[in-house]
Design goal:
The protein contains 16 helices and 20 strands. By secondary structure, it is α/β, with parallel strands linked by helices. Bound molecules: NADPH dihydro-nicotinamide-adenine-dinucleotide phosphate.
Length: 488
């Protein structure tokens, strides 16, 4: 039996406004990444649980869509307030779920989820169509309508945030949601569902079911589902996109990346190093938009590497529940194995290890922050998403060269440029193939700005007013004010 069950939720799933169990589902152990201990035991959803969740969502959605946007928004904003009031408790849970330091989760997870609920709650009352004047007094009008039941599929790096980034715009537009967290981090989304109920959301509006890929696939393929929003890897994205396409469903795909961070000689060195740290080591490097290919112009390269290594020496690696800790473990043994495999590969292929690279001699899935220099474009560590704390420094000489090299990838999620030359900053960022771009900073994702990728990194955008387009569709109505002219 597990040694501690202090994170054990009342049951595995949250359906129709209440916790629900079906112990015949496959057992799913939740592991605290800092110790390797089992902290909760859940069960994957059975077909009966999946059916129950979809039936509840289908029913709830019909009534929810009849409310005014202002009424819907009021409930979402109330949920945001509850999340903020409970930020500490939710952050402790998120830290247990993911292993991310409390120092981070206190400011980046429930708070970011609350931002989404507040922002989309605020927008809900203003979602309207438009009036379109036409010749002869005819006109058309548009009505913005919900899609129906939306399915959210989450990755394990930001379980609370992902549950809200998908749920908030969906509910604001009048949809219901069935959310499946990653089986690695199943706890936090249950709290989001609980809080929504407490805030007044009708039973069945936001449901959480647990399980592995097949549970996600069953949801995606169900005819009751109108839209699928996935945060995950590119291979999973391709599968989910294909399954959704076979039913002509709407999709949003937030997938992986291998994003370029370009640092010119004239950049502010401290800011550039700070950006590289934010873009490679926050959440132990498990962030999709990370700028893991750090292109550094030759004139500043040695100073950059030296200062980066000095500042990495200030990282406090330890118990993620201690607020002094600034760098925690990876999420799982399997993720640790994947990342150490890439570190071995980097060394075998001739990259120069200048910092870290080793596992820590302690329980849990700890790895040192790691920096490679002299990385070339063809090396595996420069081409594949590692999803761990591994930064690669690549040298470059001039602007045209770095733009071409930065774009030479299947991915296109994010990109950053550090320079004090105003026109160069805009010129370069304008030519990089990426959806979420930064000038003189990195990896900020305010709810007001669209977030998402181009090329293999995704389809559609989360956050911002733009997300509304991905959770609603327009009906247009032509109104004739004149006799009908027919040819015969
Ligand atoms: P996965 O792609 O493995 O899984 C994502 C989710 O999809 C999980 O809930 C998973 O369940 C589920 N799933 C897997 N197979 C199927 C299927 N056939 N049908 C339906 N659902 C399925 O991603 P990870 O959880 O490993 O997360 C890491 C990846 O996520 C990285 O590549 C990263 O870049 C990306 N990511 C992207 C972000 C973005 O916004 N662009 C943000 C964060 C992460 P299960 O876990 O049980 O397999």
């Amino acid at each position: 039996m597990p040694q501690t069950l202090k994170c054990q939720p009342p049951a595995s799933h949250y359906i129709d406004g209440a916790y629900v169990e079906d112990a015949s589902g496959e057992a799913l152990d939740v592991i605290f990444p800092a110790t390797g201990e089992v902290i909760a035991r859940l069960h994957a959803a059975t077909p009966a649980i999946i059916d129950k969740a979809l039936a509840a969502a289908t029913r709830a959605q019909r009534d929810w869509a009849k409310l005014s946007g202002t009424e819907r928004g009021r409930i979402l904003r109330r949920a945001a307030d509850i999340m903020r009031d409970r930020n500490h408790e939710l952050s402790v849970l998120e830290t247990h779920d993911t292993g991310k330091p409390l120092q981070e989760t206190l400011v980046a997870d429930a708070t970011s989820g609350a931002d989404a609920l507040e922002y989309f709650g605020g927008l809900a009352g203003s979602l309207t169509g438009e009036h379109i004047p036409l010749p002869g007094g005819d006109f058309a009008y548009t009505v913005r309508e919900p899609l129906g039941v939306c399915v959210g599929l989450g990755a394990w790096n930001y379980p609370t945030q992902i549950a809200c980034w998908k749920g908030a715009p969906a509910m604001a537009c009048g949809n219901a949601m069935v959310f499946k967290p990653s089986e690695t981090t199943p706890l936090s989304a249950l709290k989001v569902a609980e809080i929504l109920t407490e805030a007044g959301a009708p039973a069945g509006l936001y449901n959480v079911v647990q399980g592995w890929g097949p549970v996600g696939a069953a949801l995606v393929n169900d005819p009751r589902v109108a839209k699928v929003s996935l945060t995950g890897s590119v291979p999973t994205g391709k599968k989910v996109y294909a399954a959704a396409a076979s039913h002509m469903k709407h999709v949003t795909m937030e997938l992986g990346g291998k994003s370029p961070l370009i640092i010119f000689d004239d950049a502010n060195l401290e800011d550039a190093v700070g950006g590289a740290i934010l873009g490679n080591f926050y959440s132990s490097g498990q962030v999709c938009s990370n700028g893991t290919r750090v292109f550094v112009q030759k004139g500043i390269k040695e100073a950059f590497i030296q200062r980066l290594c000095e500042r990495l020496g200030d990282a406090v690696i330890g118990d993620p529940l201690d607020e002094a800790t600034s760098f925690g473990p990876l999420v799982s043994q399997s993720q640790l194995d994947i990342v150490t495999g890439y570190i071995d590969k980097g060394q075998q292929e001739g990259a120069r290890l200048v910092y870290g690279g080793k596992r820590l001699n302690r329980d849990g899935f700890y790895l040192e922050p790691t920096v490679f220099a002299d990385v070339t474009d063809d090396m595996t560590i420069a081409r594949e998403e590692i999803f761990g704390p591994v930064l690669s420094v690549l040298d470059f000489e001039d602007e045209a060269e770095v733009i071409a090299r930065a774009n030479d990838t299947e991915f296109g999620l994010a990109a950053g440029v550090f320079t004090n030359d105003l026109t160069r900053a805009h010129r370069v960022i304008g030519q990089i193939e990426a959806g979420s771009c930064y000038i003189n900073t990195y990896n900020l994702a305010p709810v007001e700005a669209p977030f998402g990728g181009v090329k293999a990194s995704g389809v559609g955008r989360e956050n911002s007013k733009n997300a509304i387009n991905h959770y609603s569709e327009l009906r247009s109505v032509y109104v004739a004010m004149n006799p009908v002219e027919a040819p015969f």
